[in-house]
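re the bet — no i am not wrong, look at it urself. input seq straight from the record:
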Amino acid sequence: MIHLSSKLPQVSNSIFSEMTALAIKFNAINLSQGFPDFDVDPQLIKMVNKEMNNGHNQYAPMPGILSLRHTISKLIENNYDSYYSPEDEITVTAGGTQAIYTAIASIIKPNDEAIIFEPAYDCYAPSVKAFGGLVKAFEMQPPFFDIDWDVVKKLVTVNTKLIIINSPQNPTGRLLKNQDIEQLKIITKNTDIFIISDEVYGQIVYDNQEHLSLAKFPELKERTFITASFGKTLHCTGWKIGYCLAPQNLMKEFRKIHQFLVFSVNTPIQYAIDHYLNKNNLDLKLPEFYQNKRDLFRNLLKQTKFTLLPCEGSYFQNVSYQNISDEKDVDLAMRLVKDFKVACIPNSSFYTKNTDFKTLRFCFAKKEETLEKAVENLKSI
């Protein structure tokens, strides 16, 4: 047997794969992985079928079909009053994660440093390390997961090439605030530091709050790759389709990598999404849709012994169990899926040091009856 030296020796299957597999094994309600248990709009399904029947079944242009890129440009301009050229500054990707990985690949060289804010989506750190980069993590703490920018500034060195931000944040549901934006401007001013802004939940914000996309801020926009996901906004995570926004000079480098990862993305789905977005006037009414689910789930969870943490955006609700148990979050998550038939994510999995603040993440992108049944089980703890 020939030995293959691992580029990522510390990495195993993601926690999402593990918990979903356990949910299947123990016939548990899966509130772990971030996908809906309700179906895609039947109209969108019909549109995909129509595009297949119309012969749109061969390779799309490498950056994505131009009409969809025009629609994305209009969407961003409508939402954030910021223009991106469909020709040179927008690329359709095979989901948000591929967009993030490609952006990291475009930036990071051996010994470059990247700053991330933990708990963090678990693709960030391994992707940086895959290209020889070094990760410096700022650990946010419950209940509010605020950022101490004075500490962050001390993480910046001459080797810092990248800061990755995520708002609304997975797993915490935290939104970036104006003071965060101002501090980000200060830290990056007169530097060669790039930013990846993971905005896959950017249209899912609550209580009339504003999503502060980095597209809105010219000083940050010029150095930023913004990544987004149609899977999250159209409830079709299995289609793996998203996009990246970046200034022309950055997008040129992004596309060099993108073309050799996937070359192009599902053609009939691109056409269908383009028609669907325009049919709905670019407004999918996601805040109201998901706020109803968030409020229902939070009210149900009040009947349990868990302590609710804030949820300003995304479709994840975090809870503290410090008043219930002193066991490790991984152990409690395993016990929940086996004994109480509810799968969740232990938040230590989102820290590179596996820091355990005794919190769990539940996904509420589910049918009402799913959430009700899950909480009924959790009330027994």
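see?? Residues 304 and 379 are 5 Å apart (CA to CA). told u. also The two ends are 48 Å apart (CA to CA). so pay up
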